[in-house]
Amino acid sequence: xxxxxxxxxxxxxxxxxxxxxxxxxxxxxxxxxxxxxxxxxxxxxxxxxxxxxxxxxxxxxxxxxxxxxxxxxxxxxxxxxxxxxxxxxx
Amino acid sequence: xxxxxxxxxxxxxxxxxxxxxxxxxxxxxxxxxxxxxxxxxxxxxxxxxxxxxxxxxxxxxxxxxxxxxxxxxxxxxxxxxxxxxxxxxxxxxxxxxxxxxxxxxxxxxxxxxxxxxxxxxxxxxxxxxxxxxxxxxxxxxxxxxxxxxxxxxxxxxxxxxxxxxxxxxxxxxxxxxxxxxxxxxxxxxxxxxxxxxxxxxxxxxxxxxxxxxxxxxxxxxxxxxxxxxxxxxxxxxxxxxxxxxxxxxxxxxxxxxxxxxxxxxxxxxxxxxxxxxxxxxxxxxxxxxxxxxxxxxxxxxxxxxxxxxxxxxxxxxxxxxxxxxxxxxxxxxxxxxxxxxxxxxxxxxxxxxxxxxxxxxxxxxxxxxxxxxxxxxxxxxxxxxxxxxxxxx
Lengths: 90, 393
Description:
- The structure holds two protein chains of two kinds.
- By secondary structure, chain A is α+β, with helices and mostly antiparallel strands.
- Chain A contains three helices and five strands; from the N terminus they run ββββαααβ.
- By secondary structure, chain B is an alpha/beta fold.
- Helices cover 32% and strands 11% of the residues of chain B.
- Chain B has helices at residues 7-15, 53-65, 84-93, 109-116, 132-139, 143-157, 176-185, 201-208, 212-225, 294-300, 302-307, 322-325, 330-335, 352-357; strands spanning 23-27, 70-74, 97-102, 121-126, 163-168, 189-194, 261-262, 267-269, 280-283.
- In chain B, a hairpin with a 4-residue loop joins strand 7 (261-262) and strand 8 (267-269).
- Chain B is globular and about 55 Å long.
């Protein structure tokens, strides 16, 4: 699927986030898929993404400036592909 | 998986253990309507000390607090517990997802409809042959028909993505494509796992486990067609057969680190394949010096703390594949009578075969709920090799 970093994203309502020393575990109760967030910055982005108008501003708010966003946007794309993240208003 | 940093760091984190398991297996009962020859929990008879409904609910509350996302419920045949559906509903209402394994005995059209209505329950139907002939030889007469009826009922009720769970043996390894076709027919996903010499599996492992050639065949099949096949990461002992990462999944032993087993009486073992005193961490109902309850056992049990320490590679330390297979499966070694710090009995480098050929003593089962079977007596034709090797009667 296409991942558009310039639109609003949010966690799917069936996704639970469990904090871990390395980052967090994500579990989707609908797809029964597990994902790993491997640092605390991406955890911050994922947890707050619904509060921002688009994915890029969620990254900026977590202290990732535009030049460093590529790996984070990639991670968000992977999460969108596995339906952990969905577009739209909460 | 999301990747921002190299995977090995995560593997190390997992080897040191998490504050709570990612998932755990919970055998709800030792009672079973079948008597599969390879049953890893030696199930059959119900244990009189089986946890009550309330005790089970208390455990679910604790799992919710620990944010254990889901439990793999098994047995025995878990659906024969009269409170089974009550417990499933209680778990899902408390944000603990349920995947349960069944031989299909209770998956009637009505139950299938009910299951199809829930987003939080996943069903796994056990099948060990793609034909009745191969399946029933291991799982018992009529068990193939029972499983297929359950799959039909689920498909008719609109249940999406049931799992067909297959233990790979010498006799069904050639049927992998047929299993995949069966799964496709019922809108299900194929899940294949490794045969362990645990429980009654210890008695049949020598005859049933795939040969060395078949292990390669299995590995090649997984690499070629395993994309949409679940494995429970159970074939990590085969990782050395190809490039690192060719097999999907974490490929590490999670025993006591990211997984564990709760048995029907509340005993906590390191993993579902290790029901033996050697791997017993504690009991949820009693305090063995580190507090009672599941969280205390998980965090404080000496066995689990030991498993989270760096493990010795032992005899495998000079092998170039150690980084990929990590010495293989602890339970497979233990129950075949091999040293824990040596090669896996199905080591892809072939180091397991000579170890198996040597004199070894398989540990006696310490938990057995098998129903009594008639014992065949035979006359000795030569003196026994060891004490008590055969019945003196």
